[in-house]
Every structure is written in C-alpha cells, then in structure tokens.
Design goal:
- An 8-stranded parallel barrel has the order 1-2-3-4-5-6-7-8, surrounded by 9 helices.
- It is built from 13 helices and 8 strands.
- By secondary structure, the protein is α/β, with parallel strands linked by helices.
- Helix 12 packs antiparallel against helix 13.
- Helix content is 47%, strand content 13%.
- Glyceraldehyde-3-phosphate (G3H) binds next to helix 3 and strand 3.
Length: 312
C-alpha cells in the first residue's frame, strides 16, 4: 500500500511551510492506541501539523498489522500528518516501513563512517524516491553532554564542514544534527549547560533553506517527575532541554523537533497518580484515560508554546 491511500502526506511541504513561517513540525513517538490517540487529539485541537513517529522497537512492539490497522482506524485525511520511521538502522528496515505505507523514513547512519553513511543513505533515498517518500538522514552522533569527557567534540557534534557534501551526495530531504541534545530523560548535568548554537548557526549558514532536525528535544517537565516520585516512582536528577533553547533552535532552521520522553513521563505520572488515588479501581480504561489526557495536555503546551506550530 502507498501512504496516500491512508490519507497521509510526506514531510516535504510541511517543512517548506515550517521554514517559511518560522515554526517546527513536532514529531511525537507512539507505540500503542493511547499514545497515538493522544497525539492526534493534541494536533487536532491545536490545528497543528504533526509527524507520527514509530521507532523500530515500537514497530516490533505493535506489529505491522495492528499498527497499520490503527492508522486506517484513525481515518486520517489531512494535508498535515505524516507517518515516519524513527531511527531506521538499515536499508531493509526503511524499505519495510515504506512498503507498509509510511510516508517518511529516517535512515540513521550516524554511527557509520562518513562514506558508509553517504552510501547507505543514498540507497534508501533511491528506493524512497520511487514512492515519493521523504528521507531524513543523520550526521554527527547524538549523545549526551555527559559524554563530553570521553568522546572528542567531533564525535559528538555534527561537523559543519561535512554537511554540504553529505546533503548533496545523498539528496536526503532533511538532516538530523547533533548540537548537544540526547535521547532519554538525563540530558544535562546542570542548568548551565546549553546547546551549541554556534554549531547550529554554522550549519544553517551552509544549508540555508534546508530542513534541519533536532532529536532528543524533550523538556523533561519537573512537575511530572515530582508526581511520579510522589507516587512510588524513582526518577532522580533528570534534566531536559529548556523551552527557551528549543525555541531558539527553531528560529535557526530547525523545522522538526522530536519528542518522546515527555509523553512517557506524562503517561507514567498519570497512571501512578490515578492508581494511588483510586486504590479500589481495576478498570484500566480509567487510568489509561488519565494518561491520554496528560499526554495531550503536555503536547498541546509544546505545540503552542515551544514549536509554535498551532494553526499552521
Ligand atoms: O529516539 C528514540 C525514541 O525515543 C524511541 O525509543 O526505541 O525505545 O521506542 P524506543
Ligand atoms: P527525547 O528522548 O528527548 O524525547 O527524544 C526523542 C527522539 O529524539 C525520538 O527520535
Ligand atoms: Zn531520536
């Protein structure tokens, strides 16, 4: 099946609009009915474009048929919703997603040597082009600032000197870069750590009008951590990227912002609190509804106050 049969679009026009009007398209990960519904409600309520991101492990967790069944069930008819493979690590994985009906794939060759990353990205682009599917690539290793002592700068951050060659050789549609974000809840050791806007500026100067992507952009809301820890959880010292820094990145050609951990925290905090407050309840729909509401609330805030993609 082709993604157009599911009412989906690729990301090309989405990114043109985002760059023209200075906002970022949110890419939110989902892995079950509740997370998918929460994202769709947040996007609908804010009239925001959205990229529905599925990691390889999320795809395995849901299974091809259940995943695509949910997409069919969602009856998407929007010029602003893409279904995207997040961090595809092989040609086969990207091909599989395209054949299923994804409208966008990421080939993540960031761990590969430059020439091999180019070679494998090109192969994915050649296949994706046949179906008008967009391809995101990655250059630079997205790891935490906490690794600074053990890895050289070049290994952590995207080298601005590489980006023109990489994009022109691969013909990718967008490029994920490493400027100091990382995946998960522990992104910064302290409040003073900042993203490398100097590197972002150099990259944006070299690739004007080219869509850049920021992974690992969760804010890690401290109120959610408090609720989790008050209700039996133990997530200590987690620190995300402040909204002000994401907003600044968005003003510098970042036009796709990836968030997953914030929804995981919202989900967990709502479930823990709801179960604690209602010890007699054993109807999962009750705490799962609380979880959906908390994710939607978190994403509406991020769409409207951070990515500025509402009504776009
Ligand atoms: O970038 C990674 C996403 O947060 C997905 O993580 O592979 O655990 O689903 P996952
Ligand atoms: P977070 O862990 O910051 O939510 O990042 C998610 C991500 O980059 C998915 O690709
Ligand atoms: Zn990512």
């Amino acid at each position: 099946m082709n993604y157009k049969d599911f009412g989906l679009v690729n990301t090309k026009k989405m990114f043109i609009n985002a760059m023209r009007h200075g906002y970022a398209v949110p890419a939110f990960n989902f892995y079950n009915l509740e997370t998918l519904k929460s994202i769709l409600v947040a996007a609908k309520n804010t009239k925001s474009p959205v990229i529905l991101a599925v990691s390889e492990s999320a795809l395995k967790y849901m299974g091809d048929d259940f995943l695509m069944g949910m997409i069919i069930g969602a009856k998407i008819k929007s010029k602003n919703i893409a279904l995207h493979l997040d961090h595809g690590h092989s040609f086969e994985s990207c091909k599989h997603a395209i054949d299923l009906g994804f409208s966008s794939v990421m080939f993540d060759g960031s761990e590969l040597p430059f020439a091999e990353n180019v070679k494998q990205t090109k192969r994915v682009v050649a296949y994706a082009k046949k179906f008008d599917v967009s391809v995101e690539a990655e250059l630079g290793t997205l790891s935490g600032i906490e690794d600074e002592d053990t890895k050289s700068e070049k290994h952590i951050y995207t080298d601005p000197l590489d980006v023109i060659e990489f994009v022109s050789k691969t013909s990718c549609d967008s490029l994920a870069i490493a400027i100091g974000t990382s995946h998960g809840a522990y992104k910064r050791k302290n409040e003073n750590e900042k993203l490398r806007f100097d590197i972002l500026k150099q990259i944006a100067d070299k690739l004007p009008n080219f869509p850049l992507v920021l992974h690992g952009a969760s804010e890690i809301p401290q109120n959610l951590l408090k609720t989790i820890n008050k209700n039996g959880g133990k997530i200590v010292g987690a620190l995300g990227i402040p909204a002000s820094q994401i907003k600044k990145a968005v003003s510098m050609n970042i036009c796709k912002v990836n968030v997953d951990s914030d929804a995981r925290l919202a989900f967990t905090s709502a479930v823990r609190e709801n179960l604690n407050k209602n010890p007699e309840n054993f109807d999962p729909r009750k705490f799962l509804t609380a979880a959906m509401n908390e994710i939607t609330k978190t994403y509406i805030y991020e769409i409207t106050k951070v990515m500025n993609s509402a009504h776009k």
